[in-house]
Design brief:
This protein is of the alpha+beta class. The chain contains 3 helices and 12 strands. It has a single domain, classed as Immunoglobulin-like (Sandwich), CATH 2.60.40. A hairpin with a 2-residue loop joins strand 5 and strand 6. About 25% of the residues are buried.
């Protein structure tokens, strides 16, 4: 039985690239792009980070992805409670990006596909530092008909485990400029 669960876990996670931080130099215009692939923040919500040197130094992009149905609302739709301080963000996207992730069907597992949606927000690096140093962070993402809410945790496969690597790459880039 244990072997079946391990095989199922391996099958589900094969190809997963959550929280990978990359620093790329463009061949086209010599710009630098720092990105962190989306990682789970709370159930059904993933967060990704990016910045490039064409943006102001104090503007990071936080992408919020609703991974199973529903659509992330526009406007002021991202909310944080960081150690009791309420902070809200407004999406700069005029519409949500919407897509469909195909399912996985093989002899071990039958996992149906699902719709997803995302919106992007501008956050200052000081906010990300505050979030990473907090004792308790609650996130709420407004959706079209409801909201998703939960406490960010430092589980090894979750957003808070990968975001420090993004921040380190961002600060390293700026320390040499």
């Amino acid at each position: 039985m244990k072997a079946i669960w391990l095989l199922l876990l391996f099958t589900l996670c094969s190809g997963c690239t959550m929280g990978v931080v990359t620093v790329k130099k463009s061949e086209l215009d010599n710009s630098t792009h720092i990105a962190m692939t989306p990682a789970t923040a709370i159930p059904y919500i993933a967060l990704g980070l990016s910045w490039n040197d064409k943006l102001p130094r104090d503007e990071l992009t936080l992408e919020v992805i609703k991974t199973h149905g529903g659509s992330v609302s526009g406007g002021e739709s991202l909310h944080f409670n960081i150690d009791g301080e309420l902070i809200n963000f407004t999406s700069f996207d005029s519409t949500a990006e919407i897509g469909f992730k195909p399912g996985l069907y093989n002899s071990v597992a039958s996992i149906p596909g699902h719709a997803w949606s995302s919106r992007r927000y501008t956050i200052p690096p000081t906010f990300l530092k505050k979030l990473l140093n907090a004792r308790k962070v609650v996130i709420r993402v407004d959706l079209d008909r409801e909201y998703a809410e939960g406490i960010l945790v430092t589980d090894p496969t979750f957003f808070l485990s990968y975001a420090p690597d993004f921040m380190a790459a961002y600060e390293d880039y700026h320390s040499t400029r």
